[in-house]
Amino acid sequence: MKEITSAQNTTIKETKKLLKNKYRQQSGCYMIEGEHLVEEAIKHGQRLDKLFMTKDFMVNNEVNEWLTQADEVYEVSEAAIKAISSLPTPQGIVAVLKQTSQVLELPLQAPVLLLDNVQDPGNVGTMIRTADAAGYAGVVLGKGCADFYSNKVQRALQGSHFHLPVVQADLNTLIPELRSQGVEVYATALDKQAKSYRELTPTQPFAIVMGNEGQGVSADVIKASTQTIYIPMPGQAESLNVAVAAGILMFAYPI
Amino acid sequence: MKEITSAQNTTIKETKKLLKNKYRQQSGCYMIEGEHLVEEAIKHGQRLDKLFMTKDFMVNNEVNEWLTQADEVYEVSEAAIKAISSLPTPQGIVAVLKQTSQVLELPLQAPVLLLDNVQDPGNVGTMIRTADAAGYAGVVLGKGCADFYSNKVQRALQGSHFHLPVVQADLNTLIPELRSQGVEVYATALDKQAKSYRELTPTQPFAIVMGNEGQGVSADVIKASTQTIYIPMPGQAESLNVAVAAGILMFAYPI
């Protein structure tokens, strides 16, 4: 274990760059933060490139087993952890992991969630977490979605990407492929052909498409889909938050 | 219409204070921001204490009708609107409104949503918006909930409090009162007595209780409730985001 006291240390400065998308892409790495996420990563066999912990954190947690799961382990000062943390109050533990390319296995054994241009990182992370809870086979991030490896997405998804594949793909290519495999694709939309989700009995496996917070699912993706569906709202709100809508739909059809 | 060019103007400085809870309580006022929210307020007969708009906003929007709905109207500079905005990119329009005490009318005509110590402003706002979409009769914020008049809650609820009453109350007093009126109260929890929400057929009207993001619904509130319910999760995620869970439950029982 090496010791780092200064926030100006080279390793700290290099790691700090991972807060930016550009450098995450260049390096093929990303950061996770907090005891729960690091524990989830290790539990699911993820090797850690780097593990940074404060003395305080190591004294108060059982970390011995974790030390063997990381290529490099650092005991860092509060100032150093603050420099690489994306939180106002750092939790004393940060890890660097390699980005892994995950694959959606066909034929599907369960439904999948397709996201089309969902821009808010909290929404993307929350929907992946919900898909995980619902027992979905995977989540596909289409064009324009928030960067999956950003700290905000990672925070909201709470380690769910260690449980199910999260794949980046062009939905305009993927949807025809899914449909040729017999997967029905239901896109959320408010067009005239849209069917209430309550009247739909999807045949397994199927896919649900959620769209951009303001514009919804794009016209091309709707065209490629089997059917459009909507959530009837008896009240006065004009719309639902997209992550809430996704939760309602995913739990409406037990798998 | 008065003109304000400086961010140091007294009215601007006074208004800026409303970004803080303490001053909102002292003054009994709060702020809303953006065209949609101001439009919703006016549409629902809310009088505006103050209305601040940039020249640019007034040129690009139909604001004539709004001018008569505000006691004081100000044309302000970009610098001045930036000083009172809670957004990184201000939308050119901010209004100050009086806080109004809303009342939950008994007997209930529809279900209500009770929030026990829900701390995240985004979650509180999103749940009010979802309750509005679901046609609920109202939302009650119990102890420990995020400040309803904060800009973050206001942003997430998108004007839904102009559609249904949002009331602050002690749930330990309110729940027995509701039950004495024949309202069944279902609290989300993972205790042994909890029933799957899929097996529940609630009799109208009823109430659903959602709890704190980490600790769930408090023991006292659970004790006062009719029955505990839970959402079965076939996947691996340990929990659902509270606003997603609320959405699943509110849309599970059509009103």
UniProtKB/TrEMBL annotation, chains A, B:
Keyword Transferase: yes
UniProt key word Methyltransferase: yes
BP GO terms, sorted: methylation; RNA processing
InterPro entries (alphabetical): Alpha/beta_knot_MTases, MRM3-like_sub_bind, Ribosomal_eL30-like_sf, rRNA_Methyltransferase, SpoU_MeTrfase, SpoU_subst-bd, tRNA_m1G_MTases_N
Keyword annotations of the record: Methyltransferase, Transferase
This protein's name: RNA methyltransferase
Family: Belongs to the class IV-like SAM-binding methyltransferase superfamily. RNA methyltransferase TrmH family.
Pfam families the UniProt entry points to: MRM3-like_sub_bind, SpoU_methylase
One GO cellular component, as annotated: cytoplasm
GO MF term list: RNA binding; RNA methyltransferase activity
